Amino acid sequence: MRPRRFIDVAIECALKAGDYARKRKGNIKKISFKGEINLVTDVDKKCEGIIVNTIKNYFPSHNILSEESYSEINTSGYRWIIDPLDGTTNYAHGLPIYSISIALEQNDELFLGVVYQPEYREMFRAEKGKGAFLNKKRIYVSHIKELKKSLLVTGFAYNIRRAMRNNIDHFERFLKASQAVRRLGSAALDLCYVACGRFEGFWEMNLHPWDSAAGKLIVEEAGGKVSKFDGSPFTPFTKEILATNSIVHSEMIRVLRRG
To answer: Domain 6-138 is classified in which CATH homologous superfamily?
Structure first.
């Protein structure tokens, strides 16, 4: 077998899983719940199998961290971080806002990210130091300079009914401080939409590594900034994230600090 570039394998995985999810939309055979409102479908698990099997075919020694069932400690130096279907609730309800997110790190440093939106055939990708792309076009964050003119996006954790920190207070403040706030239901897409200038900023809490790993790198390679709420460094294993076009980053931190 000829050696394959990491980015080519990630794109292959995303396309295979995304095409399967698109074809199965409206024909879900099984829905179960991982929590009170956190659901998972048989399509999630099938997409995960497609991605994992493809990666293992090319790189059998690589470790994998995936949302649904496949988790490994990073012993090889390479670890793939996968969300086989980000936006499952949307998907289960027939909303065309979901994605496949795949990232790769070497020695705990992210160097590749791919997020695929199957409904619109939008492939977001980035390799560290090589820029960010939407399909074949280079993308950049927006140039909006003021928070009051910014369109923002956020999300709420599945444990919102029980969590003490549930983002509702931040949501209210940003509604008043920005042009508008949206809530799409796929953190991976939220980050990519910041990267290509559709949003100026995204914030959320209680995410998991597979929600943010690929999108973080894509935002940074598009010229944006990603941090924790207080501006300190962010990793995918951090429970709060702020991603912006970098220009409104300080303003958003000030709003977040009011909470």
So the answer is: Fructose-1,6-Bisphosphatase, subunit A, domain 1 (3.30.540.10)
